Amino acid sequence: MVSPMGAGARSEDALAALLLTTRLGDADEAPLAPGRFWSLVAAVPEPSELFATTAVDIARRTGLPEHEAAGVERLLAAGTSLAFALERSERQGFVALTPFDAGYPRTLRDRLGDQAPPVLFTVGARELLSAESIGVVGSRAVTREGEAVAREIGERVVRDGLAV
């Protein structure tokens, strides 16, 4: 497959990861969950090899049932709409990183294994992704007390030289 226009210097494997795991393409197919994506990559380390193949070939190479392989084929066929979506998001300052891109934090894959996110959408200083850091997770409907705790944790962590 030729890289979709507007995709810049992305590798074919990065494009495949985006097509397989996000809704940026126009496929009427649910994207692969992280575990399913990593299983596919274990069977085919360079997922771009699956471009322009049939569901039967994908099933043979990956061990997926043929109906799931057909879904992979449909996801991989949505390259044009992916290119336009990437161009729009990158104009707005968002960058999508996959494990096939420089800058994807390898420690994330090492620590989370098959639950590591196949795509990270970033804004701002991407070098912070490789810094020692801590994440704070909580409810969207945060209470005032919860907000105060999160703020205190954030301030302490930053004072200790970690990224949040």
Strands, helices and their partners?
Elements (H helix, E strand, L loop, with lengths): L11 H10 L12 H10 L11 H8 L3 H11 L2 H13 L3 E3 L8 H7 L7 E3 L21 H16 L5
Antiparallel strand pairs: 1-2
Helix pairs in contact: 3-4
N- to C-terminal distance: 38 Å
Helix content: 40-55%
Report the mean per-residue pLDDT as an integer. 88
C-alpha Rg, in Å?
Answer: 18 Å
What form results from the Cα inertia axes?
Answer: elongated
Determine the number of helices (DSSP H or I, runs of at least 4 residues).
7
Q: Show unreliable segments.
A: 1-7
- Could you state the order of secondary-structure elements as H and E? HHHHHEHEH
Strand order of the largest sheet: 1-2
Strand tally, please? 2
Proportion in β-strands = under 5%
The biggest beta sheet reads: 2 strands, antiparallel
Instruction: Output the structural class.
Output: mainly alpha
